[in-house]
Amino acid sequence: MTGSTSTTGETAVTGASGFDPDRVKCVVWDLDGTLWDEIAVESPTDDLPVPRPAMLAAIDALAARGVLSSLASRSAPAVLDRLNAVPELRERFLAPQVSWQDKSESLRRIAENLGIAVEALVLVDDSPYERAEVEALLPGVRTLDPQDVPALLSAFEGREVTPESRERVRRYRTEETRRAEGERFRGTREEFLRWCGMRLTVGAAAAREVPRALELAARTHRLNSSGLSPERLRALAASEGHELYTARMTDRFGEYGIIGAALVDRGAPGTWSVPLLALSCRVAGRGAAAAFLFWLMGRAREAGAEEFRVTLRPTDANLEMRILLRQAGLRRTEDAENAGDVENSMDTTGSAVLARSLRGDLPRPPAWLHVSPRKDTEA
To answer: Is 31 helix (H, G, I), strand (E, B) or coil?
Structure first.
């Protein structure tokens, strides 16, 4: 399969050639003709069609590498009820959508429910019409025919799998429980977050945590300050004058694992520069990004720094990070008259340097989130 031009004028990403696995967080599977051969609603019994073994094996192989799976099927909602009655099959899929709505709308809902960008989805569907509909309305989503699945899997071969990757599917299932509890909770959003008992521990990255930091650099977009490549991050982290910090988070539902990474450059006297601040989208809206950033500021001041800097490369995806940096008092370093006009102060790489003084009061983390330095034994 080759790329086709969508109605928006952008090139739809179809087929598995030139595949970038770092951008894929969830594969969405069609049912009839894709996951199984038959049409479920035409079954004479309440039994579901037998899934294709190769498709189940592919789903499990992706899960082992931290790639989620969901469902988007234009079929009767009763099919999902029947699927729910088969736990060993249902547990493979997060935020499934089975209804008569357009596939593009199903994908939007899946992305919203999972808290990821819609461009992080891949659709596997046997119908050229359904793939074309998604390509036209969601041009950033890659679509594949079921025959492209082996190529999809091969794109992930040889890539390092971190402990967080192996646990990702389970943690997203836990996230579904959090979301359900939040919907049932009688109180404000802040009261619910307090009830969750969230704790953030921050410290220098241990050697075994470096692969996860590289993964965050490659796979995060909403809460990524600069888009620094994993290769560049690895080289800088190993160079003199640089330190790599990671943040872990837990709550009453369990562990999030390592959800944040920050590279600190201490080469300039009196200044802490952060070429990369990256956090998992799973913690968006919970104050973790702000807490991590504010902890770094406090740590910088304790170390004798008077100025704190962050490298920012504005993108369509990282508006949330840009707002956070501004709320933290960081402004671009040149031309105070236009402070905050980041797009007009970028260098040739598309990045700007934002800075603030560490004198006076520093912002504090949200009241519902307890932040503490990680003990050496935990690092």
So the answer is: coil
